[in-house]
Amino acid sequence: MRIAVFVLSLIWLVSGELLEADQDASVPEDWLLVERVGPLEEVELTFALKQQNVNQMEELLKLVSDPDSHQYGKYLSLEEVADLVQPSQLTEKVVQNWLQSHGVKNCHTVVTRDFLQCVMTVQVAEALLPGSKFHRYRRNSQTLLRSTSLYSVHEDVHQHLDFVGGVHRFPPKGKDISKGWEGARQAALGFHLGVTPSVIRSRYNLTAKDVGTATNNSQAVAQFLEQYYHPADLAEFMSLFAGGFTHMSAVERVVGTQGGGKAGIEASLDVEYIMSSGANISTWVFTNPGRHESQEPFLQWMVLLSNMSAVPWVHTISYGDDEDSLSDAYMNRINNEFMKAGLRGISMLFASGDSGAGCRHLTKERNTFRPSFPASSPYVTTVGGTSFKDPFKLSYEVTDYISGGGFSNVFAMPDYQVGAVGKYLKSVQPLPPQTYFNTTGRAYPDLAALSDNYWVVTNRVPVPWVSGTSASTPVVGGILSLINDKRFLKGLPSLGFINPRLYKLQGKGLYDVTEGCHLSCLDDKVEGKGFCASPSWDPVTGWGTPNYPVLLASLMD
Fold first, then answer.
1. Contact 163, 48 (CB under 8 A)
2. Residue 302 contacts residue 169 (beta carbons within 8 Å)
3. Which of 12, 288, 310, 425 could bond 297 through an S-S bridge, CB–CB 3.0 to 4.6 Å?
4. Neighbouring C-beta atoms of residue 292, cutoff 10 Å
5. Would you call 299 helix, strand, or coil by DSSP?
6. Which residues are catalytic?
7. Dihedral, CA of residue 348, residue 353, residue 356 and residue 358, to nearest 10
8. Angle at which helices 54-65 and 328-343 pack, to 10 degrees?
9. How far apart are CA 219 and CA 150, in angstroms?
10. Alpha-carbon distance 242 to 275, whole Å?
């Protein structure tokens, strides 16, 4: 990993009008205010510098991701991406001099030079960003430094920054992904099938021979919400559930520092199922408890990717937040980071969320559906969830009512899905009222997998009834890693950003899910029902769930 350190030596004072930063400044109700932070305590802020050639980057991503393009699969190295997007010399100079004028010297940049991470005292941070006032907040055992007041950036600097990280955004609330505990309703059934690696492999037609063998293949999970896996749990899980196929029982590499304490169910789930569906493939875990209370772990992961020349080909992430809780500037910049990954041939898979269509209460009389980000990003592959029609045997799949899906209120529908989504909107009746969703927005998910009633080993104990798209996402990720494996052995490039190709397949290689609806607002207009599954693509399960051998054959050129 290459890290460049800025030595800021020029003094330059920016003058000009103050502009309000467009960051959300609300405090989630699960965070408690503890105290005003002392002026000499340290914070680490992340400055996202304006990139160059963003439109060119988007066009190039379309070309390298479109199987009908002569540039398909001709990916860029990190250094080539850096040459394309790195900020202008003027942008770098303006931001550096602004920081130096406030005495900020402890800064690190990345290979692409579009992020700058700086450590400074609270006193300096509040002078740098007038209006900011840092406080310490607590949620359970986690503490965080944040400013909830609106801050300003000098006009001459504002135009050179996309956002400043580590000031306003709070991590989203960790959800209880074990919805099966909601009753002993399942437990009382006694002989429920439950989802294990053998069930996954049977349902999606993976044989004992369908394991990784390519030496240059790798996959990864990323964990942010104070979630850690334990190596002993992974070994125990594999000994219990992975007897029928060649597999690895240890993670190849942990990037970041694992926190102490108990293992998290979600972290255990991610690692155990990407490594049992993408069996015998080198697996990395990105984890970040944060060196500073001011860090944003998700943003820290994105910065890491801009500084690592060699990273795994498939990343699965079970993380998201409501679109309306984030600024457009922040989400657009994160989208640029996803495009950078796609240009390098990296596949980014995000869970679609576990709130169905979601619900936002605008007034006492008016609700709308509530899309999630990054699930709603046009530049990632979003994975929804399904359940077995008959929970007592290996049957066909129907919608899992929690499966996140819908239409972005921020991002326009990308070209690659216009035909499929248009067909759904025209052919399915009745749809929810159009006041509840944006018919022209990016629609998600793109595909799905089983998300209900998984077995997980955590803290050395096998735990049943674990559910959520946090389960389906690593399963799909592992299957795409297996396809990459076969492609590498044939001398083909990685799948990269798969959505344009996935939509051109028109459902080939996927089991179409046509039954069931997901949840939404409990009101008299929609009565808790969001969108419903239908033949072909739908905003609950996307194109459906993997039929591995057919999907593999469809993606081997």
1. yes
2. no
3. 288
4. 16
5. helix
6. 266, 270, 470
7. -110
8. 50
9. 40
10. 10
